[in-house]
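User: Second chain of the day. Same drill as before.
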Amino acid sequence: MNEDYDVIILGTGLTECVLSGLLATSGQKCLVLDRNEYYGGESASLSLDLLFQKFNKGSPPDTLGRSRDYNVDLVNKLLMANGKLVKMLQKTGVTKYNTEFTLIDGSFVVHKGKVYKVPVTEKEALSSSLMGIFEKRRCAKFFGFVQEYDEKNPKTHKGYDLKTMTMRELFNKFGLSDSTIDFVGHAIALQEKQSFMDEPALATVMKIKLYEDSLMYEDAKAPYVYPVYGLGELPQLFARLCAVHGGTFMLNKPVTKIHYDDNGKFVGVESDGEIAKAKKVIGDPSYFMDKVTKIGQTIRCICIMNHPIAATTKEVKDAKSSQIIISSRELGRKTDIYITSLSHVHQVVPEGMYLALVSTTIETSEPEKEIQPGLQLLGEVVEKFINISDAYKPTGDGSDDNAFISKSYDASTHFETTSDDILDLFYRVTGTHFDYTSTNDDQ
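Assistant: Same format as last time:
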């Protein structure tokens, strides 16, 4: 460890490991340290024994089966099939490391207490029981506009300037009802808060297009994909990429001190009496508590069940995996509640068992009560693990001290905001933009 490096990375969360791979392949000499004995940080997937150990619940009961048959995610995230993270996977070629991805079976939204499939095409809008006959036609017309919209082709804009028009104004142009706006904004555009309504429409329209474009596979019923054996596979893919290009990884390695020079610039990291030196350091907020600010809290409830989600809709019951969104408007909240469910198909639980995660941004002093609407959809739960975590963002951009800090994961069930953070950090560290839009010839 007593060597000089270009970059030292603290933590093996997804953000940190992706950056390790991107930097190593661009010629940077990287050292990655993690205080934990496993990869993934807050985005790890744990065996049953490690899960019970993390939450101080002793040993798991024998009735749950073998510990190694479980790969339980600590965060409920899915990948948009045409999203930035998937494109980074393709661009870097890490998918060649024997990792499989599966399609998520369904995307659902709760409306007036009932669970409905999220319609996203003109055809689905016209057949959806979520809307009345006249509203179906208006919604289908709106989806048609979004599908045809090309930011670079004014002929597809229909006279609307989406850079100045608000999303509220665009919805009104198509005469959409409040309930339709609700599921389009929250279950398709995946906006967490209502503030998007009074912001320029372009960003939300592009999010809707991403959802539509992610339904690219012939059998796709939802726009999401998921790695077999859990999300913890993703950091390990990029860690392997980094190692192949000369990177060094050390787990179970606590950081004793981060060293700065007299001008406040980062110079090295100390661990167990050894000091590694580098020009720059990257890390998750837990390593830089004096350089981050708290922006909120997230509650996540991990539930192990012996049955699929008990919601009355047959499509939900039959799904081996799904996402369900309960919008803020549905509950009179400021932020949405997210539910993801997985099964043995994804190699995260043994056959006959199911895994569900419920999350939201905390708004009150009673966070467990806040997620009750989500838990009520699940039915009986065999084991439940509550995790309340603080969310942080860095107070600086790293230009003053060469310490580049990632943001905490939000409560949403996709990696798009995390991907934006990765790309922004890469630019700030290297001064160049990472082009994820083109893929290698051999992909």
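The chain has a mean pLDDT of 93.

User: Great, on to the next one.
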